[in-house]
Amino acid sequence: MGTTRIWDSRNNRRATVEHETLRPCPFCGGTPRIDDDVDDTTERYTVRCDCGGNMPGRHVPIDPSFQTRVTCLHSAVEKWNRRGLDTRTGRK
């Protein structure tokens, strides 16, 4: 299991959220990280590697509920971990 700290606006603090462990980068084998991307109206979590590989999760309106943020974080992790897998077998 991995963990990431995300903003909990209801309690005005950061909270730790558990998620699947991130798989190594499929391009370079490096260790990815999770970033919170924010623009004027939306935000999302993106899994990134220093080599430039990335996988964004779902966009949500700024200041969504904590549970919506958790769902978005999980979507980015799941997309990253599934990239390059055969959907029938779950293998590369």
Low-confidence stretches: 86-90
Number of domains: 1
Order of helices and strands: EEEEEEH
Strand portion: 25-35%
Mean pLDDT: 84
Radius of gyration, in Å, reads: 14 Å
- Please tell me what the overall shape is: globular
Describe it.
This is Restriction endonuclease. With 92 residues, this protein is of the alpha+beta class. It has one domain (2-82). It contains 1 helix and 6 strands, in the order ββββββα. The chain has one helix at 66-82; strands at 2-8, 13-19, 33-38, 42-48, 54-56, 60-61. The strands form 2 sheets. Strands 3, 4, 5 and 6 form a 4-stranded antiparallel β-sheet that branches. The protein is globular. The two termini are 21 Å apart. Mean pLDDT is 84; it is low at 86-90.
